[in-house]
Request: fold
Amino acid sequence: MRTIVIRAALLSLASCARLFAAAPLPAEHLTLTSMPPDNLHRIYVLDEAFFNEIDARVHIFDGDTYRRLGQIDVGFTPGFNLSPDGKTSVAATTYFARGSRGTRTDVVEFTDNATLKTTHEIVLPPKRAMTLPTYFNLGFSADSRFLYVSYVTPAASFGVLDPAKYTVIDEIDTAGCVLVIPSGPNRVSSICESGNLLTVTLDAQGHEASRAFSDVFFDADKDPIFAQGVPETNGYAFISFLGEVHEVDFSGAQPAIRKPWPLLAAADKAAHWRPGGQQIGAIHRHLNRLYVPMHQGGEGSHKEGGTEIWVFDLSTHQRVARWPLAAQKLSGVVAIQVSQDEAPLLFAADDRSELAVFDALTGKLRHVEKQMGQTPWLILNN
Amino acid sequence: MRSIDRLFEKSSRALAQRTSRRSLLAALGQVLTGAALIPLLPIDRSARAGEAPSNPKAKAANPVTDDPKSCDYWKYCAVDGFLCSCCGGSSNSCPPGTAPSPITWIGTCHNPGDDRDYIVSYNDCCGKVSCGNCECNRNEREKPMYRPSRNNDLNWCMANADSNYHCSVSVILGVAEK
Reply:
C-alpha cells in the first residue's frame, strides 16, 4: 500500500512539472469570421429540412477547401435563387407568427452574399407557391430590373417585384400555367398542363404587355417533363420522366423548342433506366456536357435518386461516360450541379444528405461531406 | 368513356388557358373541395395500364402489407410525406390539434386484397410542424406541379388558416370503375 502511495505521489509531481514547464496558452480574442472572396467552386445547398419544415436553410460550401462557409435561414418550403451578378441571394418563404402556427407572412428576403446578412425584404400577398425548390420558384430578369415570384393558391399567377425599390409591382394571372422562367429583360414563361409554355411579356413598368402560348412539345400524361429545368446556353433543357431531352431556347421574343432527343438507347430502356431525383441535371456550358442522375425504376420512380451519373455530349447527344455511385458508397443522388470553370467540379447530394464532390472531367471522387442538412434538394452556384 | 374523358380534359384545358384567374378559382373551387363532389372529378383510369409500378427491386424487398404504419400499405401508392398513422391519427384521420386540408389531389391505388382500383383522396393535415415520423415517398401516377390535381409536391395546406404541413392521409372515396 505504501509503495502505491509513493508511486502516485511521484507520478503527480511529474505531471505537475510538465505542466509548469510548458508555456501557458495565450488568451484568445473572440472574433467574427468574414466570408472569403467568391469563387467558381462555391455552392449554395438548399436543405428543405423536411423533418422540421419551418426551418429550411442554405449551406454555403467551398468545393476547394471543403469548408462550410456559412448559412442563410430560409423558413418554410422556400424558393431560392441568386441574382445575375451572384452577389445577392433571394429566398421566397413563409413565416408563421408563433413559430409553427399563427398569422402567415409570405416574404422575399435579400441576403448579401459577401456578409451573409439579410439586408432587405419584400412582403408578398399570402399566395407564394409552397412547393419543392426549383430554379423557377423565383428569379430575376436578366438585367435585374424585375424579380418574379411564383404564386399558387392553387390558382396560378406570379408576382412582379421591384428589387431596387423593394416593392410589389403587379400580379399576373397565368391561366393555370405554373412557375416563373425569366428570359431577357421583360419576359416570363410558365409551364402549362397542356404540354406547352405561356410567355408573358412585360412593359417597362412591369405590367403585362402581351402573352402567347408556345406549341405543345410534351405530353403530361404519357411522358411529363420534370418541372425542374437544367440551365444551358440561351435556355433550359427539360428532361422527361422517360428520358427525352427537350431543349428550349429562351433568347428570342418567344421560346424556340428544339427537336427532342433521348438519353436512353434501346438496351437502356429495356433495363428500365430513368432520370430521377429533385434537381435532375446539370450542364457545363463550355464543355457542352450534360450530367444526369439515373436509376433503374418504373412508374412512380421519378423521385428516386440516381445510382449512376450519366454524362452526355450536348452536340452529338451521345453518352460519353457513366459513373456508378455504389462503389463510392454513395446513396441515390437527388440533386446535381457543376461549376462552370475549366477545372470543373461536379457536386452531387444524395438521399442520405451527403454531398459528394467529383472531378467533373474524370468522375474521380474528391470528397464526401457528411450531413449536409436533412434534405439537400437544390444546389446553386455562379 | 375514355374518349369522353379526353374530350372533357382537352376542352377543360383550352378553357383554362382562355379564362381569368377568378373563373379558374371558381372552377378549382368546384373541383377540389373534397368528397362530396368527387363523382365530378376527372379520374385517372390508367392505373392498371402500362408498366409495373415503381422500382421492381424495391417491390420485391417490400411485400404487400395491411399495416397502415407502413409505407408499403396499398392506399399510400402516391403519398409523399409523413404518415398520419404514425403521428397520432390514422390512414384516414388527422391527428388531434391539426386541421384537414379542404383542398387536395386525387389518385388511384390498386388494392391487391380484393384486386380493385380505388379512388383515393390525399389530404394533408395542417397547423403543426412536419411530424417527422414514418416518411413515405411513393409517386405512382404522380405528375409535376403543372398538373396540380395529380401533384404531391404542393403543400396542400396552402389554403388553410394555418398552412403549416404536418402529415398526410389517404382517404378512400370509392371504387374506380373500369
